[in-house]
Specification:
The complex is a heterodimer of chains A (582) and B (553). By secondary structure, chain A is an alpha+beta fold. Chain A has twelve helices and 24 strands. In chain A, the strands form five sheets. In chain A, strands 1, 2, 3, 4, 9, 10, 11, 12 and 13 form a nine-stranded mixed β-sheet that branches. In chain A, strands 16-17-22-19-20 form a five-stranded antiparallel β-sheet, with no helix packed on it. In chain A, a hairpin with a 3-residue loop joins strand 23 and strand 24 (576-581). In chain A, helix 3 (114-131) crosses helix 4 (135-143), helix 3 (114-131) packs across helix 11 (443-462) and helix 7 packs antiparallel against helix 11 (443-462). The longest helix of chain A is centred in the N-terminal third of the chain and has 22 residues, at 2-23. In chain A, 47% of the residues are buried. By secondary structure, chain B is of the alpha+beta class. Chain B has eleven helices and 20 strands. Chain B has a six-stranded mixed β-sheet, with helices on both faces. Chain B has a four-stranded antiparallel β-sheet with strand order 8-5-12-11, with no helix packed on it. Chain B has a four-stranded antiparallel β-sheet with strand order 13-14-18-16, with no helix packed on it. In chain B, a hairpin with a 3-residue loop joins strand 19 (534-541) and strand 20. In chain B, helix 2 (26-39) runs parallel beside helix 3 and helix 3 crosses helix 10. The longest helix of chain B is centred in the middle third of the chain and has 18 residues, at 301-318. The chains are: A alpha+beta (582), B alpha+beta (553). The A-B interface holds A 177-183, 243-246, 255, 263-264, 266-273, 277-281, 289, 293, 365, 368-369, 504-506, 508-509, 537-538 and B 149-151, 212-214, 232, 235, 237-238, 244-248, 253, 256-257, 260, 263, 293-296, 340, 342, 483, 486-492, 494, 509-513, 541-542.
Chain lengths: 582, 553
């Protein structure tokens, strides 16, 4: 029955698509600047997708762009859902894992729903622009790789979309935890008392109440002044005392924070609330960490969150400050300040100083353990309600949220107050903002902000190292010896090794090799003008260079017997490879 | 005390079965562990928790009757450091001795009340190096690691230059060397002390070649990840042996996963390098527990008080007090067990080189004391001990070799053999097992236990009854450590009032959980109940047991 219905639906859908296709041939379209006019894969960027819908988009992208997109699973979630990876690069111009790469994910906090669409938008946009012939993207995908895992907590994503939730619930994964420590797990979750799929607020008329309806918008409750009599009391989120322990909603599904589970500066839950058992004790994160460890070409990282309009960098905890030295901060600043320009209303800030302390966060691990320049954008800001700066808080002026709902969303963000008979509270009313409004983008602003954030991540990816052998100088120094000096240039902002990487020898050095003669002595040139060098005694044909700085150079030199034509090759884990002959 | 004597007698009776003369390799470990499950099927079960990178099993022996996971438990862990072979013997020997004691009433009762999870060897890849053709002290598992982080792995390991199958030391006569022969024990080398006008004459390395010609010796051999550097507390990145991140190894993860789910464990006993039994942990300064959310790096006053008594018992059983001071290294297991796992954690190497006074009467004081004319030298201590015990064959005299990295210099290979500084001659093992098994049984006697005492009912007007009682921790250990109070991976003592018929609780909570109850401490609770007939009150947690009382209203 189900499959029959499905087939009928598919048929209807196909017919509809065919009709649209007839009316919207390429010749009927004027391209809006900066958008792919006739994408091979159509996606409506004004709504949210569950796991099934996402997988369909991934498969379509891989099928429509076989040279650009490959789809694979990097592992499974607690409940066995695949963690899908889109590897995006122009494979006709080199293998994905030999190019400098950006790693991007979303949905680690599954209630932060749009993070998945934002991550996916980047992949969709770069391939469709490439397919549309845009020269920037032709070049970008020839040189770089995007590894995008749009949704890294898929169990809770489907729970959020299909189950009743607040704006904040389903942040956890789905492994049970005994949050109230009474020996039972997940026994007292929210209850969708009015059955509308949203966990909203409970209020009760009461002679002891402290709240009254706001005359400007009676849906809103405001606290009365001290000494005044209110009409309502607020009773918290929709729910029951399911286990009869005198508390409501105190032990819901899961109960941990996947972004306190990463192997850098990790602390247990009694110090860092939300931590699970040990770093990568959650299978989703373990799969991501194993993937990143196996791909040393990743030089840039972005993990999307909501909300507050922030471009975050580490450190997450103050004691990690020594691992963010001046050289590295210069790189972050160059990226973050550009981000503030590209995404007006977002602030570039340091997590522990300007937000709160986090032990065991994801981008701290990328920076600390892997030497990746990694950032995290907190999507959506109340500044967007009426394009007004809202100060530094999360939610902004609550009036604006009600007004925006009333005048721009036509009330679609709110569940009106309705009476309900509660077993513990008696006669109450249930209502409030829907789970989809407050932290997530309203539909019409989704594509616009996804694009601005994508432009920032593309900028970040573009500025992963780009190496060339810029110069080979050969001079005869007598005694049958030639001196070969080679300059390796990095044309982008990000170095092949962060200062933190160099200090801890995280990634192996870049190797500059000479072929075409018999190397007698090899050295790193510390100052070419003053002739200051440092010899490498073992394996002198392959000089190990600790770093090629951002927008900088590294110089090496050999004294060689024989040979006339020399080839210099540089191989760098994060910087790719380059070669040149004299 | 009576219990200990009984246990010892039984043990002496059974030890003839083994007639083992050397430490236990992985095959013998498997046999001995599985023999316990076969011999005592009603008390013991054995399973492999995980396979290491080297394909070794990490065994778990569960000892106790009935529903093992539902009773208060002690975890006993050996093989914490691969070079510490004795730890394996102590853990496994404890299991054997405990089960041999099951013929006695006291041990049988203990096995009905409590569970023992014994993990005899958490470093099975590393301990195997003792039994290999080339013997050297190893703590890492078989994971391929790049210890010097140069992009190559295992390119500069040890080399057996004198072909004796053991990696010892090599000394190079060199006027720039920083070592000289210890005037007290000339076979041993000590660092020259410029403050005393001493001049060195030797360079000292472990035995080997500079295989990769980088100027360093033996800096990137088999490597591997150390079990005792891979835990989360005090974890240090980029340290050789630490792994890519904490809990990166299958055996560490398997143990942590098991223990985190074993809510019934109240104490962990480690047989490993760290010693907080000979000298107990000091309580935090001022005795104040750390504020919520703050890192905890010392024992609370309440926990330290309990630990001090545990140490007293340990020292009385051991009968020696000269244990050298130890510091727990980054990512070590024993500290993890308290600071992150939240259980009482007691650790001991089980044996150390006993103090033997130097032959020269002029030397006053002992190890650990600055005597002005001698510095701490564990090799010298060992040599004296070996002489006093008639131990031979554990030191190779310095013999010249040809060494390609030191052309024209006199290079000699020799020195104390691997393993002997941390592991006693095997003939000592039985006695040490007996003492440590007795200690663990004594510790089990201090377990926190929930009891309900002083139950009173008072009739009030209108069919109301006030019910009051005390929840009593009959054990000497607190019901939870300071960490246990905070971590959601430990269960509080929960108290439930179970009404029947038309009863209702009109005052007091039907269900509640309690903060830690100190050893021998009580918490008073009361309720007012309307109605009559039987009423049941239950208090307990899986790590302290559960007590139920019924009152009639």
């Amino acid at each position: 029955m189900k499959s029959h219905t499905y087939r009928l639906l598919s048929l209807a859908l196909a017919l509809q698509l065919a009709m649209q296709a007839l009316a919207q041939q390429p010749e009927n379209i004027l391209a809006a600047a900066g958008s792919p006019p006739n994408p091979k894969v159509s996606v409506s960027w004004n709504r949210y997708h569950d796991n099934t819908a996402l997988e369909e988009i991934y498969r379509k992208m891989a099928a429509a762009h076989p040279d650009l997109v490959s789809l694979s699973s990097i592992g499974q979630s607690v409940e066995g859902n695949d963690l899908w990876l889109l590897t995006i690069t122009d494979r006709t111009r080199g293998a994905a894992d030999r190019k400098p790469a950006a790693y991007i994910d979303g949905g680690i906090h599954a209630n932060e729903v749009q993070t998945v669409e934002f991550a996916l938008y980047i992949g969709w946009y770069v391939v469709e622009m490439h397919a549309a012939g845009n020269p920037f993207f032709k070049q970008l995908l020839a040189e770089k790789t995007f590894y995008i895992v749009p949704s890294i907590s898929p169990d809770s994503r489907d729970r959020f979309i299909h189950g009743p939730n607040t704006q904040h619930s389903s942040r956890t994964g789905q492994r049970p935890v005994d949050n109230d420590r009474d020996g039972l797990v997940d026994e007292d979750d929210f209850d969708d008392l009015d059955g509308d799929g949203h966990i909203t607020q409970m209020r009760r008329k009461s002679p002891y109440g402290q709240y009254v309806a706001d005359p400007k918008d009676p849906r809103r409750l405001v606290r009365v002044e001290q000494g005044q009599q209110g009409e309502y009391e607020l009773l918290g989120y929709e729910g029951l005392d399911n286990d009869g322990d005198g508390s409501i909603n105190e032990d819901g599904a899961g109960g941990y924070d996947p972004n306190r589970d990463w192997g850098w500066n990790w602390q247990p839950n009694h110090i860092q609330g939300g931590a699970y058992k040990y770093p990568f004790s959650l299978p989703e994160n373990r799969a991501v960490a194993d993937f990143i460890l196996a791909h040393p070409n990743i030089a840039a990282g972005q993990s999307f969150h909501n909300y507050g309009g922030m471009i975050l960098r580490g450190p997450g905890a103050q004691e990690d400050e020594p691992n963010f030295t001046r050289e590295d901060v210069i790189v972050y600043d160059a990226l973050g300040k550009k981000g503030e320009e590209l995404i007006p209303g977002y602030r570039y800030i340091v997590t522990y100083k300007d937000l709160y302390s986090v032990y065991g966060g994801q981008f701290d691990w990328m920076h600390g353990a892997r030497g990746i320049f990694a950032m995290s954008n907190e999507l959506w800001t109340a500044n967007y309600y009426f394009s007004r700066q809202q100060g530094s808080g999360f939610g902004g002026d609550p009036n604006e949220q009600y007004d925006f709902d009333r005048y721009l969303l036509f009330g679609d963000g709110f569940v009106d107050w309705n009476p309900y008979t509660h077993p513990q509270y008696g006669e109450i009313e249930i209502g409030g903002f829907k789970k989809s409004y407050g932290r997530m983008h309203p539909g019409f602003l989704l594509e616009s902000d996804a694009h601005r954030n994508a432009s920032f991540v593309i900028y970040h990816a573009y500025h992963t190292p780009s190496l060339e052998v810029a110069e080979i100088e050969v001079t005869d120094v007598g005694g049958g010896l030639k001196q070969v000096t080679a300059v390796i240039k990095n044309g982008r902002i990000i170095p092949t090794h962060s200062a933190h990487d160099i200090a801890n020898r995280i990634e192996v050095p870049d190797v500059v090799s000479l072929s075409g003669g018999q190397v007698v002595v090899g050295m790193v040139v510390e100052n070419r003008d003053l002739g200051i060098t440092k010899e490498q005694r073992s394996d002198p044909a392959n000089i190990r260079v600790s770093n090629v700085p951002g927008n900088g150079t590294a110089t090496v030199r050999w004294l060689v017997k024989g040979g006339t034509k020399f080839t210099v090759t540089v191989v760098s884990k994060k910087g790719g490879t380059a070669s040149r002959s004299s | 005390m009576k219990r200990i004597l009984l246990l010892s007698v039984v043990w002496l009776g059974s030890q003839g079965l083994h007639a083992q003369t050397d430490y236990t390799d992985r095959h013998r470990l498997a046999r001995r562990a599985n023999a316990l499950a076969n011999t005592y099927p009603q008390y013991a079960s054995v399973r492999s928790l995980a396979k290491t990178a080297g394909g070794s099993d990490t065994w778990l022996i569960t000892i106790g009757t009935g529903e093992a996971d539902g009773k208060p438990a002690i975890a006993v862990v050996g093989g914490i450091a691969g070079k510490h072979l004795l730890g394996v013997e102590l853990a496994l020997g404890f299991a054997e001795q405990l089960l041999a004691g099951s013929a006695t009433d006291s041990i049988r009762r203990l096995l009905e009340e409590q569970t023992f999870y014994v993990f005899p060897n958490m470093s099975p890849d590393a301990t195997e190096q003792y039994f290999s053709a080339l013997q050297y002290e190893r703590n890492g598992n078989a994971r391929d690691t790049d210890d010097d982080r140069d992009g190559l792995s295992g390119e500069d390991g040890y080399d057996d230059l004198d072909g004796d199958g053991k990696i010892t030391s090599m000394r190079i006569a060199d006027p720039t060397g920083t070592y000289l022969a210890n005037p007290e024990e000339p076979l041993s080398l000590i660092l020259a002390d410029a403050a005393k006008g001493q001049q060195g004459g030797y360079i000292l390395h472990t035995e080997g070649l500079d295989n990769d010609k980088d100027g360093q010796f033996n800096e990137d051999g088999e490597g591997g990840v150390h079990f005792d550097r891979n835990a989360t507390y005090g974890y240090r990145h980029f340290l050789p042996g630490a792994g890519e991140h904490a809990a990166s190894e299958a055996e560490n993860r398997a143990l942590f996963d098991f223990l985190y789910d074993a809510f019934n464990v109240y104490a962990v006993v480690s047989f490993g390098p760290y010693n907080n039994l000979s000298t107990p942990e000091q309580g935090s300064k001022g005795g104040q527990p750390a504020a919520r959310g703050q890192k905890i790096d010392s024992w609370s006053a309440q926990d330290a008080k309990a630990g001090a008594y545990v140490s007293e018992v340990y020292n009385a059983i051991m009968g020696v007090k000269d244990a050298p001071k130890t510091t727990a290294g980054p990512g070590n297991f024993a500290e993890w067990a308290y600071y992150h796992y939240g259980r009482f954690s007691f650790s001991t190497p089980g044996w150390w080189v006993p103090r033997v006074e130097p032959d020269s009467a002029s030397r006053a004081g002992g190890r650990g004391k600055a005597t002005g004319d001698a510095q701490a030298d564990p090799v010298a201590d060992y040599l004296r001990f070996a002489r006093s015990e008639g131990i031979t064959g554990t030191f190779t005299a310095w013999k010249p070799v040809d060494h390609p990295d030191f052309p024209g210099k006199r290079v000699e290979v020799g020195g104390v053999h691997p393993f002997v500084l941390t592991n006693p001659p095997y003939r000592f093992v039985d006695g040490l097992v007996r003492k440590h098994a007795d200690f663990v049984v004594r510790l089990a006697g201090m377990a926190p236990r929930t009891d309900i005492v002083d139950v009173r009912t008072e009739k009030l007007d209108g069919g109301l009854t006030r019910v009051s009682l005390k929840v009593f921790n009959t054990g000497l250990l607190p019901s939870l450590t300071q960490v246990g109070e905070r971590s959601y991976f430990l269960k509080r003592i929960a108290v439930h009032v179970k009404t029947t018929g038309k009863q209702s609780v009109v005052s007091g909570r039907r269900s509640q959980t309690l903060q830690a109850i100190p050893g021998r401490g009580t918490v008073e609770l009361s309720w007012v109940v309307q109605g009559n007939g039987p009423l049941t009150i239950e208090a307990g947690s899986v790590s302290t047991g559960t007590k139920t009382v019924e009152v009639s209203l």
